[in-house]
Amino acid sequence: MNFIRVNMNTKTIKVEAMPDEYKGIGGRGLTSIMINKEVPASCDSLGPDNKLIFATGMFCGTNMFNSSRVSIGAKSPLTGGIKEANVGGTSGGALGKLGIGAIIVDGKPKAGDLSILKLDLEGNAELIDASEYKGMRTYALVEKLHAKYGDKNAVLCIGPAGEYMMKSASIQGSDTDKRPCRAAARGGIGAVMGSKGLKAVIIPQNGKKADPLVDKETFNEATKAFAALVKANPFEGELLPAFGTPALVAPVNLMGAFPCYNATKSEFEGWQKISGEALANTIKERGGQTGHVGCSQCIIRCSNVFNDKNGKYVSSSIEYETVWAMGGMCGIDDLDVIARMDFLCDDIGLDTMNTGVAIAVAMDSGYRKFGDKNAPIEIMDEIAKGTEMGRIFGDGPSAVGKHFNNPRVAAVKNQSIAAYDPRGMIGNGVTFATSTMGADHTAGNMVAMYLGHILDPLKKEGQLENSRENQIFCAMADSMGLCLFAMYSIAAPDAKEMFIRLINARLGTSWKVEDLRNLGVRILKAEKEFNKKAGLTAKDDRLPEFFMKEPLPPHNVVFPFTDAELDGVHNF
Amino acid sequence: MNFIRVNMNTKTIKVEAMPDEYKGIGGRGLTSIMINKEVPASCDSLGPDNKLIFATGMFCGTNMFNSSRVSIGAKSPLTGGIKEANVGGTSGGALGKLGIGAIIVDGKPKAGDLSILKLDLEGNAELIDASEYKGMRTYALVEKLHAKYGDKNAVLCIGPAGEYMMKSASIQGSDTDKRPCRAAARGGIGAVMGSKGLKAVIIPQNGKKADPLVDKETFNEATKAFAALVKANPFEGELLPAFGTPALVAPVNLMGAFPCYNATKSEFEGWQKISGEALANTIKERGGQTGHVGCSQCIIRCSNVFNDKNGKYVSSSIEYETVWAMGGMCGIDDLDVIARMDFLCDDIGLDTMNTGVAIAVAMDSGYRKFGDKNAPIEIMDEIAKGTEMGRIFGDGPSAVGKHFNNPRVAAVKNQSIAAYDPRGMIGNGVTFATSTMGADHTAGNMVAMYLGHILDPLKKEGQLENSRENQIFCAMADSMGLCLFAMYSIAAPDAKEMFIRLINARLGTSWKVEDLRNLGVRILKAEKEFNKKAGLTAKDDRLPEFFMKEPLPPHNVVFPFTDAELDGVHNF
After folding, report:
1. Which of A11, A69, B133, B206 has the most other CB atoms within 10 Å of its CB?
2. What's the rounded Cα separation, in Å, for the pair A353 and B265?
């Protein structure tokens, strides 16, 4: 496995063997440990000293299913702390097959300079002038790049929002249908890519330089056994292919934990128009696709393709969190508006959650009315043009709240929460508050425990411990290059042992089950250390005050944990 | 609430107020406690001293959702012990609305005598000569009865199998589409009805004599809250309406617990042709119905309507256990054969499980080949005609095993297991062995705990205790008149308290949460007492030997519990 180091100031590229100290660490483990070591924590996140690191997960490039996630890390312009966002689609697998462990981008070119990083089948890289693509949205960009360099390439890229260095800017990745519809969405990671003057990374998909499996036979046997576990779980095996992640709309809304109207309510009266069932029916009526394979080697098929009334492509894939942010939070019960907003975010290169919540905060401030279906589209136009108002929206909900002097901003460390009200699912509130990443559902989502009646979403008992263990688990899981849905099956009987067999067969190591947790703890420690050096304190590990002050109907409850309780979560 | 006592010998009918001692006990609680008290345990189950009791559940006749199940109890000609089988559709709600707590049928008419019991809106009953319906199958019978007496009536009836007093004979109930496609299937309860010379019970659906709710406001509020819990569970709220109970085919098969080829294997190679997804797709292609409302006041919609290739009705509803019994167990991967067999069982009046397993035992004995798609249909013809061979098959798998001298009969107390191999889901094996009802998945199914990774299906730890508590829970649940899927939501936080509010608002009682378990224990004790008096011993609480002797692939495990462990399950 190689590292590719790219300096955007000198435009030099170095390929080096992955140092021994990083062996057996992939994805988020690699980005976070390296950033903590190599990036001055007090640096300007959009300046030359920050590093943008693309790291393949441990299983990327192998024949393991759902193993195409690449982690992208940097100091975040949004949270001021460390950031890792990962993206599926085709890039992670493609990078793995080139034998690339990480691409580390540092320095900063002169203003206005824009490049593309193009990889070849030998795993070498070159920088190409990208002036002609300046300001381009991602769909048009990727089409052009595919036309010029061949459509067998995976592409990671930014849109106008990234070039503007907006704090909600994402890095978009191409999916199996060659569309840039998958996002490393969070933390303004796209702004860092923009600050480096990097418009896109082009990655051939047919590489053959992945490190060979140390024990192929065991690996294949364990892969098969683990796949059977994933398929045997009704959630991953049946519900996700049928309804996609919006399968969560109905249960979370009915539990009274679906934040809507900028988190003033938790039950959305229009939920049946935007539920997983409604989405699947609409998609089928219009000749779209449910059970779509969006990521390389996916066996779960949670993706979908949404068409308009005339059967013309609108967007892929409509996810639960987007249905929530653009739907419930803005009081909009119209899948056509939601799908259009999903497309616009992908095309402009924006986090749908941060953007939807920013619009909701503006609506809550009287800027436009909740339920106004034109407002979001018009705001997207402002963002795309980079107008003064557009830049405020592009910087996310905290910037909008500040602009309107509205403290009702559902965000932690300036990053919006996801579709679980911290008062209706209090363990998710603990994760949102204490995660090293800002409010982030992928850092430790407890929804499965609530739906499975393993934990009561409203009672304090067990929440702190389970949030902690979940955060440790997610840090480890984000290092594997596998999607979280695939990783969840590790909870099945004997699955941890099976997973360890996979790792050891991949690497020739002698990991034990407890090493999984050890890796998660090590990653979180590195992240916490970086955040501390960057100046984040316990006060940043807090939910906004309104979650502790405004009782949420129908249960009429507030977030119940004290500061001291939150400060004890990461007790390792 | 009234009791209606019907003597088939004297053809007399008495209506009496429900005795105080039975107040607050419905459904299975009522049938089991009364049978234990009133039926001589040593009696001939097909003789005059046995009683056939139809008892409404506690919520039948109210506006509570999914509250249309009626329990039917007797001494079982199949197991030799006590039996309760309950059925959904329209009858339970209709009986409840007439203010009927139970119909108790005893005595025995002279041979060849056949009657119909017809209820009126006052809750009175009359016996009508039914000679003209002799030998009729249920679909034609119900059509005739609806034509003659009005199609707003719910009907409970038997087919030829019940008239022949076969030990797999069911009592069929009409659904919301007026079809006799719902079954109180188990224990040969239809044979007892046949022995009483009772062809059908006709029940007007528009009764207005249900006991009024004591606290209507609380009842309605708690009903709404409990409904929200049911809808909020992805299994009940999304998976069942999308795929019906065959949603279980994929996960159980992938776990290696789907008994096939007469339980010689546990992974059926043709599972994808008979899975919930395949079924839903086939149904939709042919203009059938998924998410069908088969039972009165149902909010779950697990039912379906299966059409043939020409869009013509075949059967409703295709259930998981039938897909297994007629499919996997017989090595048949053809939904058309399975649906046809489902219809024939309903039409002739037979338990699909006992019948499918009987056919599988015959195939395992070389009578016909596994996978032979004609064999089951031909066997059904023999059963319907009541030939000598047909009578053996109609008496179920133990009779077939005895005939072919084949001990590989997956049954306990002569009643077939359901679609969970006792070696692949060992807690289900504990339930099958120790249930008072013979092998019965509705007596304590653990599959949800296995799929939720709460319990390991292959490890002994926790199985005995969980089977016990599940059996207690099911005895209680079967007394409520609600379907088990609705009852499962009682595991949600605060749901038990909510359910107690419902009971107290219904009855004006002051039940506490622990009274739910107390009721379950009381019922099981009565059932055990009856079974003991009837001569059943600990030796009857055993699985057939082959489950302890033949390791089941792919896990290559046998059922691991000792006799002493099984004997300790009911330690109350």
Report:
1. A69
2. 48
CA–CA dist A287, A285 (Å, integer): 6
Residue A376 shares a structural domain with residue A309: yes
Contact state of B238 with A247 under an 8 Å Cβ cutoff: yes
**Residue B539 pLDDT grade (very low, low, confident, very high; cuts 50, 70, 90):** very high
CATH number at residue A186: 3.60.9.10
Total Cβ atoms within 10 A of residue A500: 19
- For residues A264 and A138, membership in a common domain is answered with no
What residues of B are in contact with residue A456 (Cβ under 8 Å)? Answer: 493-494
When pLDDT is averaged across residues B153-178 and rounded to a whole number, the result is: 98
Residue to test with chain B: of A224, A226, A238, most B Cβ within 10 A? A238
With contacts defined as CB-CB under 8 Å, which chain B residues touch A252? 232
* A234 to B235: CB separation less than 8 angstroms, yes or no: yes
Enter the DSSP assignment of B437. Answer: T
B residues 407-466 closer than 8 Å to A (CB): 451-454, 456-459
Together in a domain, A414 and A427: no
Q: Chains A, B: CB contacts under 8 A, how many?
A: 89
Are B451 and A239 inside 8 Å of each other by CB?
Answer: no
Flag whether residue B269 sits within 8 Å of chain A, measured between CB atoms.
no
Residue A500 has which token pair? 């360890």
In order of A272, A325, B157, the CA distances from B143 in angstroms are: 37, 53, 12
Helix axes B138-149, B335-348, angle to 10 degrees: 50
Output the pTM of the full model.
Answer: 0.94
**What are the tokens at B461?**
């730890």
Residue B73 falls inside a structural domain:
yes
CATH of the domain at A334: 1.10.569.10
Record: contact A456-B493, CB cut-off 8 A: yes
> Which positions of chain A have pLDDT values less than 50?
none
Are A291 and A330 in the same domain? yes
Please check whether residue A501 lies inside any domain of the structure.
no
A183 and A37 in a common domain: yes
Beta strands (DSSP E) in B133-180 are 153-157, 171-173
Structure confidence by residue, pLDDT tens digits, A356-413:
999 999 999 999 999 999 999 999 999 999 999 999 999 999 999 999 999 999 999 9
A530 part of a folded domain: yes
- Return d(Cα A357, Cα A367) in angstroms, integer: 14
The bridge status of strand A100-106 relative to strand A153-157 is: unpaired
* Phi and psi angles of residue A172, each rounded to the nearest 5 degrees, phi first: -95, 140
Does residue B307 sit in helix, strand or coil?
strand
SS3 state at B391:
helix
Cβ contact, residue pair A232, B247, below 8 Å: no
CATH number for A456? 1.10.599.10
Task: Please indicate, yes or no, whether residues A319 and A301 belong to a single structural domain of this protein.
Answer: yes
Cβ distance B26 to B100 under 8 Å?
no
Phi and psi at residue A315, to the nearest 5°? -160, 160
Domain with A530 in it: 422-491+510-572
Q: Alpha-carbon distance A242 to A449, whole Å?
A: 21
φ, ψ of residue A14 to 5 degrees: the values are: -125, 130
* Residues A42 and A123 occupy one common structural domain: yes
- Is the bond into A554 cis (omega within 30 degrees of 0)? yes
A498 assigned to some structural domain: no
What is the rounded CA–CA span in Å between residue A327 and residue A519?
Answer: 37
Tokens of A533: 């050096």
**Looking at the structure, do residues A352 and A486 belong to the same domain, yes or no?**
no
**Domain stop point among A363, A398, A420:** A420
Query: H-type helices in B176-334, by residue range?
Result: 189-195, 216-232, 234, 240-243, 249-254, 271-274, 276-285, 320-322
Peptide bond into B19 cis (omega under 30): no
Contacts of A320 in chain B (CB under 8 A): none
Residue A458 with chain B: CB contacts under 8 Å: 493
